[in-house]
């Protein structure tokens, strides 16, 4: 993939510091941790053989304003290759102030530059259902779904150096035969974090190259409004 080759060009942190773009790199480091994970230091706290029990779950984790799927550069490239750009939108939802107060993690996400810049999967209808979901409530992108979906409900805490079961998933099943799937979810949680780091670096140093790859058309510029129109009467935080 061309995106992987682009990352190889910029993956050396020392190379970026010693380049003509050193000032941009220093500004990035002032607000963002640009180090990839030391994976051997991350512990999987999810019990052995535990995976989501999607077929028997009554909750639809692919619906609801708070469940909008943020995309990585790799996700954008994949959707372009799959000719499914109809599922992407540059406009992010306006979250109610009460929702941001109840979910600090969501508030941190909304405040980030990556959230403002990168697109999300479209949501449809009053229930805000993911546009990739079929009428039979199956994902039309699987197995080529976005990274945040691929690792769900495994959640990484870099500070605590552990992966745990996310609070948004109420249904699980456990059996030794599910252990390969558990390991895959753990790995996906680590990959999702590293892709976030790569995105920050490439958006800082390689924006023209991303434009050439066709990805730039889906990125929100600094002078663009990244948010949907606010619903009338709904208090929001921008």
Can you put this structure into words, describing what you see?
The chain is built from 10 helices and 9 strands. The chain is α+β, with helices and mostly antiparallel strands and 238 residues long. A hairpin with a 4-residue loop joins strand 5 (123-124) and strand 6 (129-130). The chain is globular and about 55 Å long. The chain starts with a helix and ends in a 26-residue tail after the last helix. Mean pLDDT is 91; it is low at 233-238.
Count of strand segments: 9
Distance between the termini: 35 Å
Radius of gyration computed on alpha carbons: 18 Å
Tally the helices: what do you get?
Answer: 10
Q: Give the low-confidence spans.
A: 233-238
User: How would you write the strand order of the largest sheet?
Assistant: 1-8-7
Number of individual domains: 1
Instruction: Sum up the overall morphology in one term.
Output: globular
Instruction: Compute the average pLDDT.
Output: 91
Structural class per helix/strand content? alpha+beta
Quaternary state, please?
single chain
**What does the largest sheet look like?**
3 strands, mixed
């Amino acid at each position: 993939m061309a995106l992987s080759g682009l990352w190889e060009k910029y993956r050396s942190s020392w190379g970026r510091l010693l380049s003509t773009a050193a000032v941009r790199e220093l500004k990035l480091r002032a607000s963002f941790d640009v180090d990839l994970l030391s994976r051997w230091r991350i512990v999987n706290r999810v019990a052995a053989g535990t995976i989501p029990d999607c077929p028997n779950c009554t909750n639809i984790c692919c619906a609801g304003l708070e469940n909008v799927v943020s995309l990585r550069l790799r996700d954008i490239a994949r959707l372009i290759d799959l000719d499914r750009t109809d599922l992407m939108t540059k406009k992010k939802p306006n979250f109610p102030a009460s929702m941001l107060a109840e979910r600090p993690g969501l508030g941190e996400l909304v405040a980030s530059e990556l959230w403002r810049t990168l697109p999300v999967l479209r949501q449809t209808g009053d229930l805000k259902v993911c546009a990739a979901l079929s009428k039979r409530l199956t994902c039309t992108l699987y197995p080529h779904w976005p990274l945040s979906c691929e690792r769900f409900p495994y959640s990484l805490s870099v500070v605590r150096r552990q992966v745990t079961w996310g609070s948004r998933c109420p249904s699980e099943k456990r059996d030794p035969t599910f252990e390969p799937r558990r390991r895959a979810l753990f790995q996906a949680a680590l990959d999702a974090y590293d892709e976030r780091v790569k995105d920050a670096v490439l958006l800082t140093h390689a924006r023209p190259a991303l434009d050439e790859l066709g990805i730039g058309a889906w990125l929100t510029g600094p002078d663009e409004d990244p948010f949907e129109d606010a619903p009338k009467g709904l208090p929001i935080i921008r």
